[in-house]
Amino acid sequence: MIQIQLVNTALSSLRRNLMRSMLTTLGIVIGISAVIIMFALGEGAQKKVEQQIEALGTNLLMVKSSSVSTGGAKGAAGDVQKLTLDDVAALKREIQQIVAAGTSVNAQAQVVWGNENWNTRIEGINLDVLSAHNWEIKAGRTFSEQEMKSAAKVAIIGETVAEELFGIASMAVGETIRINKIPILVVGLLKGKGEDMRGSDLDDTVMLPFSTAVRRVIGGNSKYQDRIKRITVQVDEPSNMDWVAAEIENILKQRHRVADDEPSPVRVMNLSQMMETRAEASQVFSSLLAGVAGVSLLVGGIGVMNIMLVTVTERTREIGLRLAVGAKPADIRNQFLIESVVLCLVGALLGLALSVLALIIAGPLFGWEMVLPTNIMLLSVAGTAVIGIGFGYYPARKAANLDPIEALRYE
Fold first, then answer.
1. With contact defined as beta carbons under 8 Å apart, do 344 and 25 qualify?
2. Which ranges in 256-373 belong to alpha helices (H)?
């Protein structure tokens, strides 16, 4: 009961100087909102990366032709050493740990259906691309082996293309579209994936059998039509990634007759590791910013102590009177401690409200979902209570140790 009376007394005191109380909490408000926003950004970025890794596929290695120096001039990647479909077959045959080896060629082209048209990415793929990148068929079917071999005029399209051409994505299967005036039957609709880490729409694509793309749509009748720029390799276990990467380089060196002491004809990159490294860097950056925001909390606490010292000075006669009529020093100390904690808690609640508002407004600008970390919110509020006690203790102790007679004489 006594503590409730002290809380009421503290609240009445703060209401008497409402503007000063609000200004005192400003440092706490800024500190709390900054801490929560920084952690929300970090959590949101982490979640976005996890979604992108899931959309990209797991345990993936990217194999690309490396550049070759000739006479001191470094050529573009893939200028000399070309990867072929035979390379892909050899890797799958000789490395048992490879689950899938996806190959693709791509180009931009205009896709036409009736009076509708859409400029999109055309990809010639083998069937391993779908499994390696976790593509799922939402409606219709995938390509058959016969269609892959015979360069059949069939396609699987993404949701964006389907919606742009047909209005309703589910209407796409069974329709005939035209690419470079070639009629192509849509046999399947891909399940939506959204955007990749660079903001590109993954669903804005039309997939054709590899043979169809290179012989009819993209490559033409070139003798180099089986040559590809990259291979996406899915490995069975994360622990086998490094070993498989080294083995891929060895096999391709042998196939392309590259000596052991010469540079590798290919570059093998661990995609999942690259994205996880980026996520870790983002997390570290957010933690550093949160640390800087924590300094604002410290400054806010100093502001609270400063105002509490002013309050003790202003209320010296009141303190003396209360001590003279029988109040205990502990009651005086507790009252000022409560006022200090209440100031900080009010600042924390205002900071929480401000951070939620800021995240609602800023979330769409960053393009990913902001994740409000509940544990950080609770810790922040608890932390402000500790700040209130820590920075309010000295003024409270000073008030409790006042001599009643000297306090009553204070002008």
1. yes
2. 271-314, 316-324, 329-366
- The residue written with tokens 């089986």 in the block is 226
Q: Residue 107 corresponds to which tokens in the numbers above?
A: 């180009």
d(CA 393, CA 386): 10
Residue 196 CA from chain centroid, whole number = 11
Residue 78 tokens, joined: 């893939």
Contacts of 88 (CB under 8 A, 6+ apart): 101, 103, 126, 228, 231
Q: 302: which 2 tokens?
A: 């100093």
Q: Which amino acid is at 310?
A: V
Instruction: Report yes or no: 235 and 61 within 8 Å, Cβ to Cβ.
Output: yes
Taking alpha carbons only, the member of 97, 107, 157, 339 closest to residue 331 is: 339
* 8-state DSSP, 325: T
Q: What is the largest CA-CA distance in the chain?
A: 106
> How does DSSP assign 144-211, residue by residue?
-HHHHHTT-SEEEE-HHHHHHHHSSGGG-TT-EEEETTEEEEEEEEEPP--B-TTS-BTTSEEEEEHH
Q: Encoding tokens for residue 2?
A: 């006594």
Contacts of 117 (CB under 8 A, 6+ apart): 110, 111, 165
Give the pLDDT of the chain (411 residues) as one tens digit per residue: 456 776 777 777 777 777 887 887 888 888 888 888 877 877 777 777 777 666 666 788 888 877 554 444 454 444 445 788 888 888 889 999 898 888 888 888 899 998 899 999 998 888 888 888 888 899 999 999 899 889 899 999 999 999 999 988 888 899 999 998 899 999 999 998 877 766 678 899 999 998 898 888 876 544 445 567 788 888 888 888 888 988 998 888 888 888 777 777 788 888 766 666 766 776 677 677 777 777 777 888 888 888 888 888 888 888 888 888 888 888 888 888 888 888 888 888 888 888 888 888 876 776 666 677 787 788 878 888 888 888 889 999 988 888 888 878 776
Give the alpha-carbon dihedral of 45, 51, 55, 61, to 10 degrees: 60
In this prediction the pTM is 0.59
Element (H, E) at 72: none
- Name beta bridge partners: 228: 83
